[in-house]
Amino acid sequence: MSNLIDLHKWRRLSWPRIVLYVLSVILVLHLLQSFATSSSPSTPSNVLLETTQQQSSVDFPWYNDQHPNMAPLQNRKYTTAHLTTQERDALQASMIEKARAAASEFEITGIPGSIIHTASMAKKFRSLVDCWTTGSWVEDTTHYTMPHFQDPIYGSCDRKYKKSGGTSLRPAVRYTWKSQCDMINVDAQHWCQVLRGRHLLLVGDLVQYQLHELFLDTLRDGPAVCFGELNCKDHTVCEEPETRLRYLRNDILSVRRKMDQNHGHPTANVIEWPFTSSSIMRGYPVVILNRAPVVESDEKFIKGLVETLRVMRKANPSALILYRSTGIGHPFCDDATEPLAKPLDDSFLKKLPHGWSELERRNAMAREIVEAAGGVFIDLAKLTNVRPDGHIGGQDCLRYCIPGPLDSWAQILYQVFLGLEGHLSIEN
């Protein structure tokens, strides 16, 4: 009987022992193989180097460490990351022609709302604007740094820098924009005189709200109360003559007259706050526009922007319309410490997420439409596309801290208003 009990015990214990033995053998074999591989002279050392280079080739130039890939949108109906650079160039040329044809309905030769009334003067002025947005970032620790009084989120970089022990200029503020054409330093009082009491309306995406902050920082001596980033009420930016500033968020510049979606409130994805009513257009004779990088077809983009400018021109034919180009974001921007030496080439642009890979083409299309409608296209994205540094950081690698790279926006806009009012030569 005892022999039978011992046999049952052995059978119960045999399977765990067998499993344990097998695992031990596998572990020993694995260790021996690893040792043989690491010590074998037949394994070339450049295999590991080549693998590392292949991994780093997907990194952006400002990366200090390897990061997970932020894959671009793969919806081939609306994005072109799957195309070759040659195919993307051909598509851009084709869509520019379509945008030009669609905007041919506008028969405006000068720039309404300015002293520029002829096609030749308009062409010269637009060339000068492009000259102001062409140049490079140079390190200059003596340049004027604009103080920031407004939304605390844009001053977070200064707070972090001081908390970390920084005492000198924050790295992103040490650089100033050096354009190919001379620019005059901003004079707030003179700018108010140039505005001549014309109220300003800023319409566009969330980054456009930063332009609202820049105007307040430049033209006011202190903070202004603004509740939220959707529909910020009027602020007085100039006392004499009185000039007011207002911001409305409309990501796609739609001509919607009332907020009839989501029970009368804006949705959380694409904001379309109404701004094209006749009363608003007449009340704000200077409008600065921008369009968010919404994922859609090129044809829809063209149709939408043409319709918007058509409605605006009908409501106020003499309105001065400025359009700010849309810039890219910089994934994992916390790694960046300085400007890029040169713009990203197409191999990098195609890897950008959130539809940013399409912005170069969309901006080129917008230029055709805006200029045909008598507006001024200002390529401010050209300046900030090479500034992966200076962002708010963390999860926000699209917006910038103030002061920082956006100081140059105020500088260039000042030149634009001076030129449109005849306060400087356009023969530069």
Structure notes:
Belongs to the PC-esterase family. TBL subfamily. GO terms for molecular function: O-acetyltransferase activity. Residues 371-415 form the Trichome birefringence-like C-terminal domain. The strands form 3 sheets. This protein has a 6-stranded mixed sheet with strand order 4-5-3-6-7-8. It starts with a helix and ends in an 8-residue tail after the last helix. It is α/β, with parallel strands linked by helices. It has 2 domains: 1-35; 85-420, Rossmann fold, CATH 3.40.50.1110. Helix 3 (85-102) packs parallel to helix 9, helix 3 runs parallel beside helix 11 and helix 9 runs parallel beside helix 11 (359-372). It is built from 13 helices and 10 strands. The chain has helices at 2-39, 46-56, 85-102, 119-132, 156-163, 188-195, 208-219, 278-283, 298-315, 346-349, 359-372, 381-384, 407-420; strands at residues 135-139, 175-179, 200-204, 231-238, 243-249, 286-289, 320-324, 376-378, 391-393, 396-400.
Descriptive tags:
Rossmann fold, about 10% strand
